[in-house]
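Re: the request from the purification team.
They wanted to know what the chain is likely to look like in 3D before they choose a buffer screen. I agreed to run a prediction and write the result into the notebook, where they can find it.
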Amino acid sequence: MIAVLGAARETAGPVSPTPQYRKWPIVGELLVATQLTSSQKQTLSVVFTDSKGNPANVDGIPEWGVDNPAVLALEPAAGGMSCGIAAVGPLGTARVSIQADADLGSGIVPVAGVYDVEVVAGQASTVVITGGAITEQ
């Protein structure tokens, strides 16, 4: 499986966590790792290939999952071949997975891949000043 990456871009508004996509354990070969700032999102796309690199079909709709929905929200496309990911806000790491059935018949042969994401702080946008205790001179 080859991950096709989209450009990271700023999110338009707040992002809600997506615990319905929580999956553990995450299985599959690590394909890519990336960083997003706490206000960015990205679209991931997949292509399944055979052992010689040719495009291959899978049975059913691939399933996307994330091990840390408090850090990264998912929005899979209806056909499962792409998925929007968005930083929820807190800093941290999340592992996105995609799993599918490679057997086009009645059996099940799992094929899976993993995409690691580190959410880091974005550009400074506000200032917070904190005063210490007041004491006599």
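For the purification team: Strands lie at 2-5, 9-10, 29-37, 40-47, 59-66, 72-76, 82-87, 92-101, 110-120.
Please add any questions underneath this entry.
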